[in-house]
């Protein structure tokens, strides 16, 4: 019997229990569970891994707590610019978007790119034009406004610093940070796997900066022969490490298990490069990994063997 598995994340970084109110902690756990339930329902109904990861990611994008979709952070110009990617492990087809504005669910636009364009990656105004053509739901700027994200931005907007989601620091002060990204990986009833990742990027980012999330092989990757991966972390390092594909390559060429490969990349290679964050992964047997080298990672897994877990801290 094929094992159905869905794994999700809502970002990683310096997430300490002592700095989190009970109320906020419960809100995060509830948000993670809702996304797990929504995505897993697709698998239970016989749906594809691609549709399951999309469904879970949409729920996270709609939740103000997470830095993706509605909860996206402010750029230097005081706007939201969002990135997303989705990949089908069955045929290695992928869709990605970067720097899109006013798109309610960037992961839905990435899925449209996968299915209905002859391309893999669209950016900026062109991606927005494609969204309109495909009837992807748009929202006004006000929809993406949240006071606490605005306050984060206000604190750094007159400087050249950018912050990795919540906490304030500059690049030379890497004590406290949270990498806000959401993602999902899944294995369906046919043993097909898929990955999806979506993010609002960095607070106060300039020059149309793009992180690892929408880059196939860096932040998102899926191949039925190996595994599906969604990353969250300091995007620049994950890009240079080609982190997601590296996990797959270790499995394909070295014969490592999904757990061994993920541990090698996150706990060894990225650490040596001073790359903080984590990733989630699943293989075609439904085996899963949730590994991170930071203080915490918002994460969850639900499987047809009865596993159901949501967690934040180490």
From TrEMBL:
GO terms for biological process: proteolysis. The keyword Protease applies. The active site is at residue 181. Coiled coil: none annotated. It comes from Segetibacter aerophilus. InterPro entries: Ntn_hydrolases_N, Peptidase_T2. The keyword Cytoplasm does not apply. Keywords: Autocatalytic cleavage, Hydrolase, Protease. The lineage of its organism: Bacteria, Pseudomonadati, Bacteroidota, Chitinophagia, Chitinophagales. The record marks 180-181 as: Cleavage. This is Isoaspartyl peptidase. Substrate binds at residues 209-212, 232-235. It holds the Pfam family Asparaginase_2. It comes from the Bacteria.
